[in-house]
Amino acid sequence: MADTAKTTHPQPAGRPEKGAEFGYVGIDAILEQMRRKAMKQGFELNIMVVGQSGLGKSTLINTLFKSKVSRRSVMPSDEERIPKTIEIKSVSHDIEEKGVRMKLTVIDTPGFGDQINNENCWQPIMKFINEQYEQYLQEEINISRKKRIPDSRVHCCIYFIPPTGHCLRPIDIEFMRHLSKVVNIVPVIAKADTLTLEERDFFKQKIREDLRVNEIEVYPQKEFDEDSEDRMINDKIREMIPFAVVGSDQEYQVNGKRLLGRKTRWGTVEVENTAHCEFAYLRDLLIRTHMQNLKDITSSIHYEVYRVRRLNENNTHPSDQPNGHSNGVPTHEVLSHEM
Amino acid sequence: MRIEEEQKEGWDEEKEAERMHCEKLEKESMQLGKALAVIWSEIHCLHDDIDSIMDLIRNQRNLEGYVGFANLPNQVYRKSVKRGFEFTLMVVGESGLGKSTLINSLFLTDLYSKDYPGPSQRIKKTVQVEQSKVLIKEGGVQLTLTIVDTPGFGDAVDNSNCWQPVINYIDSKCEDFLNAESRVNRRQMPDNRVHCCLYFIAPSGHGLKPLDIEFMKRLHDKVNVIPLIAKADTLTPEECQLFKKQIMKEIQEHKIKIYEFPDTEEDEDSKLIRKIKERMPLAVVGSNVVVEVNGRKVRGRQYPWGVAEVENGEHCDFTVLRNMLIRTHMQDLKDVTNNVHYENYRSKKLAAVTCNGVDASKSKGQLTKSPLAQMEEERREHVMKMKKMETEMEQVFEMKVKEKKQKLKDSEAELERRHEQMKRNLEAQYKELEEKRRQFEEEKANWEMQQRILEQQKLDASKTMEKNKKKGKIF
């Protein structure tokens, strides 16, 4: 325990140090207390993966968390058929590392973009995301709330772009345009071992240009940078998106080390080698550095937008819904509030 | 000195002797050569004799001697080489699957280069069909290659009926050929029919997409469909095997008829063909860029982890595709197109024409009608239709003319009426004015009269006053 250690330390020392110790209060010990609390509570993270079938979504999730957490690994009989309509399947796991527990939920969307007519394929997904916000909102405005509201809101949506090498397709642009307003989108180039380095740079440039032209804000969004330090870090990341990733959950022996990779007849693609692909950067962004930031932006910005919209809707139709769910205050008072 | 001279003389003599010896040897060798030549020619003659005798022995009922029609294949070959060959290849697939690169690699030309970027560099809103012709010469043989590209296929959000422009194109080319064939003067019949359609499947690793299945189902009886796995360097060998099996299973499930390689009797070829059949669908990688691997130059794709060679049979099936498409089966593709797909189209088209508006009992008889009579009938029908249309149009025209006349008359009457009315108005006004004027004249006359009376009175008055004055002084 840090604070007790600090206060017992100066005792054996001489008189002059006792005077210096009077200045120390111990406020920074709160960091230690928070850490302990967080470790006891555990974290939650909800990731959604969206993309056409066959782009390596499940493999990438398995690679990210170094264990078989994707939908395919959990369901014993996976027929490789393409579903006729978009389904939303979510799988939850509790994983632990160095005493830190995390409840990871992976939300998969099989059937996205696979049909011949893909109009409005983003609607089921929008509906799902809004349902999660709604659930959280209902819990929040409950009269007797739970101590800790279970957070099922989607913190991050990884969108898989097929490696055509030319530019974004209309379906990609439509999807990202609709969803960048409600959730953090992280676009990645799937199966990047199909592109040579020049093709990869060209493709990224084209994608960034397309995003800019269509005014799509992907994570990290420029407008949410809080200070110049954030901006610097995020600018570096923004220069690299979309990340060109390769996923693999099989290990091979390369130069005496066992590494995750894909073995082809002309070489082995190492997943964690930054000269080969950018998986390491994606993993750092999602897990090691920006996980909390993702959750913060979801809860403080996207969720708030939803909440404001919802509550305004409620207020403009006070007669329609006798709000038993509102914050306990009867409706006529709400009206007078408005006046 | 003397000794040297003597020696020299000796040497000279020796040289002379040697020279004569050489000459003699030469003469002898020439004679030997001549003798050899004679012997060789005799041997050849003997060979020919033996051959002819063998032939005679073998086919007693055939000809005596050598006629020469065994030379026929050579003649055909020479004529075709002079005429040149035509081949039309269609490539279909979503954008970004490497179709242009594969075409460039197959024919070792830059059909789509940086200066003239292929249609796939831009995403189109609707599916279009574009064709490019190129003339390739190799070893004296000339090939007119037409590449038909379909940019925009499968790229939109809603892809229903994206196969329709492709089907229309193929049908239109068959129709052109049908018309050219049925013409009276058909000296030049260019064969622009699509001989082969390469369909690119995206390397998802799972199976066929609904779009793939729909497209292949609609086109397998119009053109030779060869499915290919594009960008195969994305799959490991195991994934590739699984994927191929899955695709073949689905193709059989949906009863899609892809191009089947013909079985030949010779053992060697059939082994090759069986090997090709096992590897279907072919997984290809395309590249026209030369890189260096272990000191030798190969065409391939350079990655940080290695080089994927295009022409290496272990890496991908590109060489199989090239051999099959160009070196061994090009003629067969054309034959199948001509004999199977074109005939299908032709019989369907002609049957549709004959069954036009005729009941079933008659149609059977009419199917066997000769095409000339058919054409006559068609012409008569056409003429009748034209006449009918003419009469109709005349009627319509007359009606319109009548209407217009009526309208004009109406408006004329209207104008006249108004004219009358205005005239009457004017006359009324005129009369009024006249009245007023008369009145005014009357008044004036009255007034003048009154004035005169007044004057008269005045005169009278003044006269009486004078009289009175004269008479006056009375009182």
From TrEMBL, chain A:
Residues 313-329 have a biased composition (Polar residues). Keywords: Cell cycle, Cell division, Cytoplasm, Cytoskeleton, GTP-binding, Nucleotide-binding. The keyword Transport does not apply. It is found in: Cytoplasm, Cytoskeleton. Belongs to the TRAFAC class TrmE-Era-EngA-EngB-Septin-like GTPase superfamily. Septin GTPase family. It comes from Astyanax mexicanus (Blind cave fish). The keyword Cell division applies. This is Septin 9b.
